[in-house]
Write a structure and sequence with these properties.
Number of domains: 1
CATH topology: Leucine-rich Repeat Variant
Largest sheet: none
Number of strands: 0
Strand content: under 5%
CATH architecture: Alpha Horseshoe
CATH superfamily: Leucine-rich Repeat Variant
InterPro entries: ARM-like, ARM-type_fold
Number of helices: 14
CATH class: Mainly Alpha
Shape: globular
């Protein structure tokens, strides 16, 4: 059974509260280690994530999720190619790897810099594909990531342009998990308030 971080197992009501009160992560005072090595750690992680060693990659993904709680480390990682490796993990057969990678994307989408990169590099469609994952928590991670991306108008419009609304409507019929249904409704409400929503919905 997947071992999920406490923050990612919050009830939806708590997640909504956290989301509403969310601000872009402030840079923590840089440790001497971070100052000395910069993003070298994440360059190394990127290289190691390209290997076939599932044990090593799982260990790295766990550390990445811990690091991404700190804004300075998240921003350093986003200056490397690590995000591409996280997205590549979405196609993995190994469920813990998919879950850990999709969980990390929630953190990426929760920062201004991360949201812009996810949109500019057209990663939203890859996140959208996780809505079909057989693992409930991975599907939930996908919706939480999209909710974070939709924190600002540019994000809302971009999600709409990637044709997510019709898929969400279908998921309201297909999805059986009540917690995820709440996330779908949350996301639909946010998108419906987007500037382009009336045009797309009609």
């Amino acid at each position: 059974e997947l071992q999920l971080h406490m923050e990612e197992t919050l009830e939806n009501s708590c997640f909504i509260s956290v989301h509403r009160n969310q601000i872009n992560p402030l840079l923590h005072p840089r440790s001497t280690l971070t100052f000395a090595f910069g993003d070298g750690k994440y360059v190394k992680f990127t290289r190691q994530m390209a290997s076939d060693d599932i044990v090593l990659r799982t260990k790295i993904l766990k550390e990445i999720n811990e690091d991404f709680h700190q804004g300075d480390k998240l921003n350093l990682a986003l200056d490397t190619e690590l995000l591409g490796e996280l997205v590549r993990c979405f196609q993995e057969e190994d469920e813990p790897i998919r879950e850990l990678a999709s969980r990390a994307i929630i953190k990426v989408a929760g920062s201004e810099k991360g949201r812009l990169i996810l949109i500019e590099e057209e990663i939203v469609p890859h996140i959208r594909q996780l809505m079909d994952d057989r693992v409930i928590q991975i599907r939930a991670n996908a919706y939480k990531s999209l909710i974070n991306i939709a924190e600002f108008t540019f994000g809302v419009d971009s999600i709409i342009q990637f044709n997510v609304i019709p898929i969400l409507v279908d998921k309201l019929v297909q999805e059986k998990n009540e917690d995820i249904l709440i996330l779908i409704l949350m996301l639909l409400k946010i998108l419906n308030e987007g500037e382009q929503a009336p045009m797309v919905v009609q």
